[in-house]
Amino acid sequence: MPPLGPVLALALVLAAILTLSVTFIVAASSYLHEPSCPPIVSREEWGARLPKKRQDLTTPVPLVIIHHTYSPPACHSLEDCKKALVEIQNFHMNDRGWDDIAYNFLVGDEYLFMGRGWQTVGAHAKGFNNNSIGICFIGDYREEIPSPRMLILGSALIKFGIDNHFISANYKLIGHRQVRNTECPGEAFYNVIKTASSWGPMDNSPPPSNVTGNQGGS
Length: 218
Fold this sequence. Notes:
Blueprint: H1 6-32, E1 40-41, H2 43-46, E2 61-68, H3 78-95, E3 105-107, E4 112-114, E5 132-137, H4 148-163, E6 167-175, H5 187-193
Parallel strand pairs: 1-4, 2-5, 2-6, 3-5
Antiparallel strand pairs: 3-4
């Protein structure tokens, strides 16, 4: 077979990229319209300690607050993600003195993880815990964004929360930095969050500082 001309070769490459892009968009769209939530790894499965105490969260909440861990870094296997969650919970309970892991849910590269869940007040954003769900993406997203799969999982989780009246239909999506002096959820990720139709500014938002993430805010 004679070699392909440069124009034809480029056309074939572009066609392949377009096919992959369409496939991903269709898969993401169908995933987000599933009637049930994607499977969530339970606290028992990832080895959570019992909380010291808990407080009921009044739902539906008007805010969804997005975080990143900064440290530990992104995890790419179930076992690595379980270890990351244990590390985060130990830090929050032992070093910070909080009642439990701070977040309501966490997102790994392939899995969703139960934190405090839908019906317990978190400790992720001081002053806003009683009217929000805190979702933390495991990894450092100052210079890169979460994987497409992670973004799909996070979106599907929020949709499930809306459909089941844990999150208000007209909720506002914000980054942690909008309510606390922090870089969280990372500059690169925050720029993506701001493109969401549900994103909105917060009154009297604090300026970012050099605090990076995983500090919560009981």
